[in-house]
Structures are given as structure tokens and as C-alpha cells.
Specification:
The chain is 64% helix and 3% strand. The protein is an all-alpha fold. The strands form two sheets. Strands 1-5-2 form a three-stranded parallel β-sheet. A two-stranded parallel ribbon has the order 3-4.
Length: 336
Amino acid sequence: EKTAKTSGTRKKKKSVSEWKSLVAEFQKPHAGRAWWQVINSVGSVGLIWCILYFLQGMMKEGTVATTAGWWATVSLSALAGLFLVRVFIIFHDCGHGSFLKSKKANNTLGFISGLLTLTPFHHWKWEHSIHHASTGDLSRRGVGDIWTLTVKEYLESTRWRRFTYRLTRNPVILFLIAPLFLFFVLQRFVAKSAKPRERKSVHLMNMALLIKSAVLISIFGFFPWFIIQLIMMTVAGTCGVWLFYVQHQFEDAYWVKGDEWDFTTAAMEGSSFYKLPKLLQWFSGNIGFHHVHHLNPMIPNYNLERCHCSDPYFEKVPPMNILTSLKSINYRLWDE
């Protein structure tokens, strides 16, 4: 197996007070930017559902050929999947309380965007906060992250554990099967250690999804609804898991144990700068500036690029592009 190597000399880091002063102005929500993002993201998903409704109607009436109609359906559903990635970033920012100034507005919008992305808001918010507090710490793996073993752990594992680890790290499983399982199945269940509010959010979301699905099935019919929803979530889930993967699984990523762990270093050296073409950057809600996001999760996605460009400190993180990010598929284990 190829292994990710430990980095050499660590970059000189700024103190907490220094980087906090750099990001202060960018962590302020902007209502105009936020609501325009809601319109062009959530609104686009709604518009595509409307177009698909009329398209299905024209196919039934015979005004559009069945083959051409289904090709158009598949294409529009895939496009909606890309918009759902952007919707999930809104959901993500609401979870951090950074998207809008009002806590109530963030919670409400978080539930709505969660309904579109099949994710319970408070339950996900709780698990994601653990991810932010522990990313890069070998002693606190297992919540909100991708299963990662060290070389030593792998060599000491049973045959069954090695097999399951290799299976979950297979690209087809990791980027195609796992995302569908995550959003359709895993998000329907409550984590054992979840508190009452988080548990309630899962049950409430499951109920809301049943109602939403029943309404859409009554409008489209079961088979068209199933195909459309499956394509949307396949595209959205695959893109989302890939983005999350390359944000923390890359050469020289920061991994240490326990007392050695440092928040600032984990953010700047344990989170990648994924430099995407502008169109893909737009669809992914600027989440490629992941080092800035982990440094201060209170910076809304629409301010991440401006923050990154505001000071040479942020630009010291080596960028990863689409071509170089493909190398990350070969990384399986962390070599201590």
C-alpha cells in the first residue's frame, strides 16, 4: 500500500491572537450575499424539479419522445445534484451558525436545506463540531471523519479488519456506494451518544422526508421520483464525499497524538487548499479554502476566498488542483 508520509519541518505558525485579528472582519455574516446564495442554490433545485414535472407531463402526452425525455431528465437531475452540493454548504454554514446573523434563521434554513440533502440538522451539527475539535488527532478519530489507520495499526489488525478497511477504501465503495448509504440509510439513525435535541432532529427529519417523498411520489409517480432522487443524490453525495476526502486525506497532512495536537496547526496543515476552476468553486461553495474554514468556522463560505486572499499567511498553504488531488486516491494509511 502507498502511505502518506509525515511532513518535514513545520511552517512557523501565528499565535491565536494574531490569526484571530486577521479573520475578524470576514466572520461577519452578510445578509445580501447569504440570501442571494439561497436563491441561486435552493431556488435552482426547486426550479429543476418544476422543469422535470412539466417534462414528465410532456412525455406522457407524447409531445416529447420518451428516449429524449429521459436523457433530459437524467441530465437535469445530475445538474440538480451539483446544486445540492451548494445547498449542503449552506446547510453546513448554518450548522456553524455563520451563514446568517440570526440563530433562529440559521436553524430554520438549516432544517430546510437538510430536507433537500436528506440530513438531520442538529444531529449532523453535533457530529461535525466533534470533527472540527479533533481533526488531525490520532487519539480522537471516529466521529465525522473518514476511517484512517496508521501503518502500525494496520499491520497489527486481524485479517477481517484489514479486509474491511481495504474494502471501505476502495474508490468505488468510498465515492459511489458509501455516499448513498450515508445519506439514504446512515442519516436515518441516531448515534448512541446523541443527546435529546440531536435525537429529536433525526426523528423529525425522517418524518419530514416521508411527507416530502409521499408528496413527490403523488406528483411524479414512484419510478420517475426514485430515478430523479437517486441521480441527484448520487451526484451530490459523490461530489460531497470526494471534497471531504481530499480536504483531509493528502500527502503531508497533519496527524499527531493527544497532547501534541494543536488547533492552529491542525487547521493550516491538516486541511487542504483545493484550488478548483471557478465554476466548480462556485458549485462547491468555496469549501476548497478548507484551511481557512478550519481556522475559523464562523467565516461563512461566501467570505472564505476574500479571507484567503487578504494575507500572505493563508496563501502559504500549498494549493491542490484536480490533477494533483487524484493522487490522494492512492493514500491508504498514515505512516507515523
